[in-house]
Amino acid sequence: MGIENEVSRRNFLKTAALAGAGLSLAEALSACAPKSTSDKSAGAGGNTTGASDDVTWTKEADVVVVGFGGAGAAAAIEAKKAA
């Protein structure tokens, strides 16, 4: 008598979804990790963003929507309706 290891479609999909969520969470948490000192001095003068100190911002906005996924599209549409 052996133990049957039956893998149903439902169990397979649940396991795959949990694995994907776990990988996404691990990636998100790794972005929160503090940078080492070698990472900070990677660019010229330690500036790794490519931003310049002499740039000025002259625009004004009530709502700024970053991205155009499902939530970004809905936010942009609702902001336009409210205006």
Task: Walk me through this protein's architecture.
There is one protein chain. The chain is mainly alpha-helical. The protein contains three helices and no strands.
Condensed summary:
The protein is mainly alpha-helical.
Write the layout of secondary structure elements.
Layout: H1 9-31, H2 37-40, H3 70-82
Largest sheet: none
Give the assembly state of these chains: single chain
Catalogue the unreliable spans. 40-44
Helix fraction? 40-55%
Span between N and C termini? 71 Å
Number of strands: 0
- The secondary-structure class comes to mainly alpha
The share of residues in extended strands comes to under 5%
Mean pLDDT: 78
Per DSSP, the total helix count is 3
Rg calculated over all Cα atoms: 23 Å
Overall geometric form:
flat
Order of helices and strands: HHH
Protein traits:
3 helices, mainly alpha, flat, 83 residues
